[in-house]
Amino acid sequence: MAETTNKLKGHVVILPYPVQGHLNPMVQFAKRLVSKGVKVTIATTTYTASSISTPSVSVEPISDGYDFIPIAIPGFSVDAYAESFQLNGSETLTRVIEKFESTDSPIDCLVYDSFLPWGLEVARSNSISAASFFTNNLTVCSVLRKFSNGAFPLPADPDSAPYLIRGLPALSYDELPSFMGRHWLSHGGHGRILLNQFPNHENADWLFVNGFQGLETQDCDIGESEAMKATLIGPMIPSAYLDDRIKDDKDYGANLLKPISEECMEWLGTKPAKSVAFVSFGSFGILFEKQLAEIAIALQESGLSFLWVIKEAHIEKLPKGFVESTRDRALLVSWCNQLEVLAHESIGCFLTHCGWNSTLEGLSLGVPMVGVPQWSDQMCDAKFVEEVWRVGYRAKEEEGGDGVVKSGEVVRCLKGVMEGETSVEIRESSKKWKDLAVKAMSEGGSSDWSIDEFVESLGKKHWGN
Fold it and tell me: Do 57 and 188 lie in a common domain?
């Protein structure tokens, strides 16, 4: 267990964007800070406040103007929500900061989600330091910054590829964040929230990215790296799966969805080592209907045992006879503790949408991956899985096709990570990256050192050292 001291090293407020994929790394960061002697308060929306069950941190509800409504409801407007959260959140967050002013633990720093750039204004108006926390990888952040400042014209043009940023892997048009290219018109609100992370980001005292040294950056033959200058503090996953220095830290401690744990563990316990494909497409579960059918056919044809996290509404849309024909080798659940499943010895591979959190989890636990990215940053993450880290494959759609990855391609990738010579190489590479992830978060590791540096900066301000 990490040592904590009685002497408080500062007080940090953490402001996450209230969706599962943002809550997880930011709540985990809160626990890391607490383990190093920092008092942490999480300021989150009224709707999400009750989902955080981490005894070591306190939670203060603030208003986004949608207090008792989940933000993923049908007809939800990203733009209207952003405006409402800024208006209501700025005022209620300021009250939280003011509440601690006259106590023995006033707020020293606000760590705000980069999706909420108004956090910087709140911090400055209350004379505290500010850190912006990015939940995408460094490459995606660096590319989005180029689009935001006009260095790359919008919308992205296939003829302008490859997109080059010195010090990072080149990206094809199809590997860019999709809201800059093929989803630019259909998801304009999502694109705007990504671009709005950057106009004031360099004014923050710290920029945190959930990654670690050597994960993405490459040596430059000529000139200085153009990657966004940020402090790498990841992977932000529970300590039990990395350095094990935080006692009983096996779960993020923020669950908007209720996981089905016992049934999953019992079922996995009946399967041989490295024999099961774990299938999950994230907390939003976005999988277009045609793609859903192709995934189902691939799982049917693969002959593999599989645990599939799939919503009830999606089960009804599966091909006729699928559930019956795979019943003896499949378990379908609405949600689960993903880390607990990935860490189980029966898991042989992870069929994933390649959201950044899921990708980091697979990498940190040494599980080979097959990526079927759908949108946003997922295509870039899948590129790293196959081409940079060599820990799996990206299942690719047919050239000139309808954007759907066919079942045969998914089967090819599943066989590649589970069978034959290629699977041996992928497992060796997976082991290598798992060890590097653990090293980064262990005492004296690159990310651990960076977090210590941040904590030390709080101490100097708080104690006037």
Answer: yes
CATH code, domain carrying 132: 3.40.50.2000
Give, as one character, the DSSP assignment of residue 387: I
Give the tens place of pLDDT for each residue, 106-115: 999 999 999 9
Asked whether the predicted pLDDT for residue 4 surpasses 60, the reply is no
The answer to whether the Cα torsion of 307, 294, 75, 140 is positive or negative is positive
Label residue 463 by pLDDT band (50, 70, 90).
very low
What is the extent of the structural domain holding 134? Answer: 11-245+442-463
Q: How many domains, in total, are found in the chain?
A: 2
d(CA 235, CA 41): 21
228 close to 204: Cβ distance less than 8 angstroms: no
- Residue 6: inside a domain, yes or no? no
Taking residue 397's Cβ as centre, other Cβ atoms within 10 Å add up to 16
Band (3; pLDDT cuts 50, 70, 90)? very low
Whether 250 is in a domain gets the answer no
Per-residue model confidence as pLDDT tens digits over 256-268 = 887 888 999 999 9
| Two tokens, residue 286 | 């976005």
Specify whether 79 is located in the same domain as 51: yes
Burial profile 136-147: b = 16 or more Cβ within 10 angstroms, e = fewer: bbbbbbbbbbbb
Annotated catalytic residues are 22, 113
